[in-house]
Design a protein that fits this description.
Length: 305
């Protein structure tokens, strides 16, 4: 099999993992593809592409000595040299945790470091840590059965887009991941994962909020509005119509957060001029530079309010 001439991650699993939206968001931060193999199947998963079948490639299992553990992860550099190889007793959770930690390391790294070497080093450290943690926390089968009823999750009730929703969540679960992974509401985007870009903005109890920073456990009984909840009776929200009319987007990745932030801005108080709109929208970044059109859209809705 011809692998790309760039860093890539190979995962050999006893059972084919489920590729949830969380994988896509984390791989986008890394810029590295994931090749996942199970007996009889193989899939390549990239940040912006649908999973693609590539076949099982048993020769790769032999080359990397995979198959003895539930999960074997192999990190290759651009010359297909093995930079890390680890075995783990559990596949999906370990793999996602490793990729997530690596993405955070890449985003938090200082500038001036070569991205390729940084990617390799951060992936290696994160994979190693995640696999070691999985190995340390693994229990024998009988032991797992004995504690399976132990309370490890919190029950949290929310009202999301007008619908009561009940979640079983780990104490560390943030609202953004709950919306995307637990409820399937993927309109809120994961950008910086540090509350700096505004792509994850939603409205909670009438206030705009960076959902990547807010723990679900803190939101018992809260009313949450996402971009999916703005359409009423098949009719777009006036702010959505204004963004379309003013062409206030380009790639669209930041647009859900921009729209929700703009709606909350008007609920907080009508702006007096364009400068005030820019100031109050400064927490929502548009890397495509559609700011004049965004301001025009908000100005238009404010003028009709």
């Amino acid at each position: 099999m011809d692998l790309p001439n760039r860093p890539c991650l190979l995962a050999f699993c006893r059972r084919a993992p489920r590729f949830e939206e969380a994988f896509r968001a984390e791989l986008r931060a890394l810029g590295a593809p994931l090749f996942a193999f199970a007996p009889g199947s193989g899939t390549v998963f990239g940040a912006d592409d649908e999973p693609r079948d590539i076949g099982p490639h048993p020769e790769l299992w032999r080359i990397h000595g995979a198959g003895r553990a539930a999960l074997t992860v192999v990190l290759l550099d651009e010359k297909q040299r093995v930079r890390l190889r680890r075995d783990a007793p559990e596949a999906e959770g370990t793999l996602l945790a490793a990729v997530r930690e690596a993405g955070r390391a890449v985003r938090a790294a200082p500038r001036g470091i070569g991205r390729r070497e940084l990617l390799l080093n951060s992936l290696a450290v994160a994979l190693g840590a995640a696999v070691l943690q999985a190995c340390a926390s693994a229990r024998p089968v009988d032991d797992r059965r004995a504690v399976s009823g132990a309370p490890s999750l919190l029950e949290v009730s929310l009202v999301v887009n007008g619908q009561p929703r009940r979640l079983q969540a780990e104490p560390r679960l943030v609202l953004l991941d709950a919306l995307r992974e637990n409820l399937g509401l993927t309109g809120a985007k994961k950008g910086c994962d540090m509350g700096q870009c505004g792509a994850c903005t939603v409205i909670v109890d009438g206030q705009r909020m960076n959902s990547c920073l807010k723990l679900v456990a803190q939101l018992e009984g809260a009313h949450v509005t996402t971009i999916e909840g703005l359409v009423q009776g098949g009719q777009l929200h006036p702010m959505q119509e204004a963004f379309l009319r003013e062409d206030a987007f380009q790639c669209g990745y930041c647009t859900p957060g921009q729209i929700l932030s703009a709606i909350a801005l008007l609920q907080e108080g009508k702006p007096t001029d364009d400068d005030e709109i820019r100031e109050r929208m400064s927490g929502n970044l548009c890397r495509c530079g559609a700011y004049p059109n965004i301001v025009a859209a908000i100005r238009g809705v404010a003028g009709r309010a």
